[in-house]
UniProtKB/TrEMBL annotation:
The chain crosses the membrane at residues 6-28, 35-52, 64-84, 96-119, 131-151, 171-189, 251-271. This is Signal transduction histidine kinase. It comes from the Bacteria. The keyword Disulfide bond does not apply.
Length: 498
């Protein structure tokens, strides 16, 4: 009954035919087996409304007309049938283009042609070309506005209220504001018909915003909200005293509605695809971080194993050889003491070297003395090796002893790599290592007076272990800042939340 009430008006036709969009939405979302029942009810309701309005005798021709419209809509629904896993009406621009060409254009033309044909058999006092044009655009606007909205509502999976409360409130306020702006713009339309194009343009920027902010569902609702005042005004314009001019402006309103619908849905598709890409990038990035964490964990475990083998195996054997040589020296003639002492000294140097390598692979002191003790031990090793070549200053805040586990190991590795870079690459003669705790953060800063470098050039070639340091720091949710200028030295700062 609603279908006929909205289809036939005193001014011959309304600016939008809602039932067509409704039945199309149900068909594309429902199994094909239920289509016959839905279309039968749709046809029966339309014929009954027509009979009650125009007389009981007017049944056959309306039935033919509604059967034709039902067949056209069913054909369009079959052409754009949604898959069971398709959660949105327009996943891609291609789906939107297919919907527009098949349904908005093709089905609308077919439905209007059948409707005009039935009217031509019933009345001869109506301009059929004008009626066909109004009918086509009315069907098209109904399909463009109503069908996507109903499909989105039927296919939507709404999360718990507490998770979307702010978004829902924001969307409600946005819709109210959009309706008020559109209503105010259309308030002056009946008194000055030249304002209609301007009134149609006013809500477009807000609809574009809805496409980016609220996804596909936003434009579907926003289009209906924005153009509801336009529909009401168009009905008022369809009066006998403004018949010619009213329909001209109805054409303008309908065409603008269709253009706006295509525009905002296309923008919504682009916004959703961009969101999907960002989500996939986020997931991939998280997977990469997880993989990097496992890789670094594997490297640390391997370093621990090698460190223990060096300490417990190689070093013990070297120590045994040193003791054995000392015993041999005692039983050897004096002329062999000097060569034996030379070999013994070489073995002891090798023992120290192996111990340093073992400590660099796995700083066991970190577990016993904390990050401060580990850094202090690292500095002593460096001074023992390069004491005459580079001046080292170290400042350690005792509060950093609270730092432990992976974060302490990460800070140690950053300090180790930064010091190695300064010694091997910068040509620095002085270096300062500062461990501090302030403002709820733990900080490590390693600075030198070396030759410096252009950070972008080094980063492009992944030099100086910068990539490894950044990955380590990111895995413990920290921040790494590197500052360097040619001839001005380098400063590496690592920050962790306390």
């Amino acid at each position: 009954m609603a279908s006929h009430a909205l289809l036939v008006k005193p001014a011959e036709i309304t600016s939008i035919w809602i039932p067509g969009g409704l039945i199309l939405a149900y068909l594309v979302c429902r199994p094909v087996q239920s289509w016959l029942l839905l279309l039968s009810g749709f046809t029966a309701g339309g014929v009954l409304a027509f009979a009650l309005r125009s007389g009981v005798g007017m049944v056959v021709l309306p039935a033919v007309g509604y059967l034709w419209i039902s067949a056209c809509i069913a054909a369009g629904a079959a052409a754009i049938k949604l898959g069971p896993r398709q959660r949105v009406m327009f996943p891609t621009i291609g789906h939107l283009a297919r919907f527009f060409l098949i349904v908005v254009a093709g089905v609308s033309v077919a439905c209007s042609s059948g409707f005009v044909g039935v009217v031509a058999m019933m009345r001869d006092d109506i301009s059929l070309p004008r009626l066909w044009m109004l009918g086509t655009t009315a069907f098209a606007v109904g399909f463009m506005l109503v069908t996507p909205l109903m499909v989105e509502l039927q296919r939507a999976k709404f999360p718990p209220w507490r998770d979307v409360r702010k978004q829902v409130v924001g969307f409600f306020l946005f819709s109210v504001g959009l309706w008020m702006i559109s209503a105010l713009a259309w308030h002056a339309a009946p008194s000055n018909l030249s304002n209609i194009p301007l009134a149609l343009f006013v809500p477009i920027p807000l609809l574009m915003l809805a496409a980016f902010q609220f996804g596909t569902f936003g434009p579907s609702v926003g289009l209906v909200v924005a153009f509801l005042p336009a529909m009401i005004v168009a009905i008022r314009l369809d009066r006998v005293d403004t018949f010619e001019l009213g329909h001209v402006n109805s054409y303008i309103m309908q065409l603008w509605t269709l253009a706006a619908g295509v525009l905002v849905h296309a923008l919504a598709i682009q916004a959703r695809q961009r969101t999907d890409i960002l989500h996939r990038l986020s997931v991939t990035s998280e997977e990469n971080r997880s993989l990097a964490a496992r890789l670094m964990q594997s490297q640390e475990e391997q370093s621990i194993r090698i460190s223990r083998e060096l300490h417990d195996g190689v070093n013990q054997k070297l120590t045994f050889f040193s003791i054995a040589l000392s015993s041999i020296r005692q039983r050897s003639p004096e002329d062999l003491h000097a060569p034996v002492d030379e070999v013994t000294a070489g073995i002891r140097e090798l023992i120290d070297e192996v111990r340093n390598i073992s400590h660099s692979l796995h700083p066991s002191v970190l577990e016993h003395a904390g990050i401060g003790g580990a850094i202090d031990d690292l500095v002593r090793v460096i001074e023992g090796r390069w004491g005459g070549e580079i001046a080292l200053r170290i400042e350690i805040d005792p509060a950093l002893d609270e730092l432990e586990g992976e974060r302490a190991l990460c800070m140690y590795r950053v300090a180790q790599e930064s010091i190695r870079n300064a010694i091997e690459h910068s040509g620095a003669s002085a270096m300062k290592i500062v461990l501090s705790a302030a403002d709820g953060r733990w900080r490590l800063r390693v600075s030198d007076n070396g030759r410096g470098f252009v950070l972008k050039e080094v980063a492009m070639h992944s030099g100086l272990g910068l990539v490894s340091m950044k990955e380590r720091v990111q895995l413990v949710r920290g921040k790494l800042h590197i500052r360097s200028r040619p001839g001005r030295g380098t400063s590496v700062t690592m920050e962790l939340s306390a």
